[in-house]
């Protein structure tokens, strides 16, 4: 089979296509012929040496795939050869074949393109677990989604809208805001400001103005330290800031007095490092609640580009450019 290896930590050219033996599913695992693999910012961090895989996971990048089941390991009863599936991985998705724990697979409906389905597992599990489990999202809440045009952001906008929330996004420019509106966002804030203007300084006022003075009940943040204070000031009373990325820093200053007055919470989460049983629970929740939204059109994959697996380096360059709207997929 073909895989993409990280030959050393560095720029995208360290990603090299290689050949190796097909994997064999162990007990409780499923072998999948990959139709496509999703490209995520976590893969870029891993390539740079900043996000190592958890113990026992594949050293190859790739956290989500779609494809067809070709074999099952001992004890697997939920899946059979020929099933169309999408899977959540700890690593190794940049490959033509993968093994996936049976509890981390989702059935791909016949009406959903199998290749495009690879854009969903990581994003849906991340968005759902953080908006609902961590953030306590409810109908009528005001939700601020940072990076609404990203892989997780485009899914978070759709899910929050489907759950009856009022969605506000941040995006680089007005065109991206409008594309987020087409996914269900009710309003958007352009973070690319004129020289000398700090968007973080303006953010709380803009959020409170957009929500009629209420503030955001949930903030889903991929930015990190640079927005920490602004995000807390943007919260409604009793609101929750959920940090799932640190694109602009890992260390910030938190005003505990403000947090106490707001009766607010700051939660930090990751998905990749969770134990398999936790991932299986999240996947089961998604299968029961979010995944059916594919059937009525409330949820759909948003794909920016499809590239051959051999062009993984180009996929990383494209994602690094900031021009991507939705997901990039690699096709074996």
UniProtKB/TrEMBL annotation:
<feature type="domain" description="Enoyl reductase (ER)">
    <location>
        <begin position="10"/>
        <end position="330"/>
    </location>
</feature>
<dbReference type="GO" id="GO:0070402">
    <property type="term" value="F:NADPH binding"/>
</dbReference>
<dbReference type="InterPro" id="IPR013149">
    <property type="entry name" value="ADH-like_C"/>
</dbReference>
<dbReference type="Pfam" id="PF08240">
    <property type="entry name" value="ADH_N"/>
</dbReference>
<keyword id="KW-0560">Oxidoreductase</keyword>
<dbReference type="InterPro" id="IPR013154">
    <property type="entry name" value="ADH-like_N"/>
</dbReference>
<dbReference type="GO" id="GO:0016651">
    <property type="term" value="F:oxidoreductase activity, acting on NAD(P)H"/>
</dbReference>
<keyword id="KW-0521">NADP</keyword>
<dbReference type="InterPro" id="IPR036291">
    <property type="entry name" value="NAD(P)-bd_dom_sf"/>
</dbReference>
<dbReference type="Pfam" id="PF00107">
    <property type="entry name" value="ADH_zinc_N"/>
</dbReference>
<dbReference type="InterPro" id="IPR020843">
    <property type="entry name" value="ER"/>
</dbReference>
<protein>
    <submittedName>
        <fullName>Putative PIG3 family NAD(P)H quinone oxidoreductase</fullName>
    </submittedName>
</protein>
<dbReference type="InterPro" id="IPR014189">
    <property type="entry name" value="Quinone_OxRdtase_PIG3"/>
</dbReference>
<dbReference type="InterPro" id="IPR011032">
    <property type="entry name" value="GroES-like_sf"/>
</dbReference>
């Amino acid at each position: 089979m073909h895989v993409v290896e990280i030959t050393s930590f560095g720029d995208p050219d360290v990603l090299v296509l290689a050949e190796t033996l097909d994997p064999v599913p162990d007990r409780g695992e499923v072998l999948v012929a990959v139709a496509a693999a999703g490209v995520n910012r976590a893969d870029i961090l891993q390539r740079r040496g900043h996000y190592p895989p958890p113990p026992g996971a594949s050293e190859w990048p790739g956290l989500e795939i779609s494809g067809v089941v070709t074999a099952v390991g001992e004890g697997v009863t939920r899946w059979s050869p020929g099933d169309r599936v999408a899977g959540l991985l700890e690593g190794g998705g940049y490959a033509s074949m993968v093994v996936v724990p049976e509890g981390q697979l989702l059935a791909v409906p016949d009406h959903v393109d199998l290749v495009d389905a690879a854009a969903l597992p990581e994003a849906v599990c991340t968005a759902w677990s953080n908006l609902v489990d961590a953030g306590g999202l409810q109908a009528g809440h005001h939700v601020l989604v940072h990076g609404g045009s990203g892989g997780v952001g485009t899914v978070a906008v759709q899910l929050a809208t489907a759950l009856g929330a009022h969605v506000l996004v941040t995006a680089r420019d007005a065109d991206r805001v409008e594309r987020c509106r087409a996914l269900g966002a009710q309003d958007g804030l352009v973070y690319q400001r004129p020289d000398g203007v700090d968007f973080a300084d303006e953010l709380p006022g803009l959020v409170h103005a957009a929500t009629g003075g209420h503030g955001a009940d949930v903030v889903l943040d991929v930015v990190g330290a640079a927005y920490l204070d602004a995000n807390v000031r943007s919260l409604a009373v009793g609101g929750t800031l959920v940090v799932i990325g640190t694109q602009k820093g890992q260390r910030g200053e938190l005003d505990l007095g403000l947090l106490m007055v707001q009766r607010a919470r700051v939660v930090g989460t990751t998905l990749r490092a969770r134990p398999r049983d936790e991932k299986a629970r999240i996947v089961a929740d998604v299968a029961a609640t979010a995944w059916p939204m594919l059937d009525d059109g409330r949820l759909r994959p948003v794909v920016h580009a499809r590239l051959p697996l051999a062009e993984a380096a180009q996929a990383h360059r494209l994602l690094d450019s900031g021009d991507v709207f939705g997901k990039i997929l690699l096709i074996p």
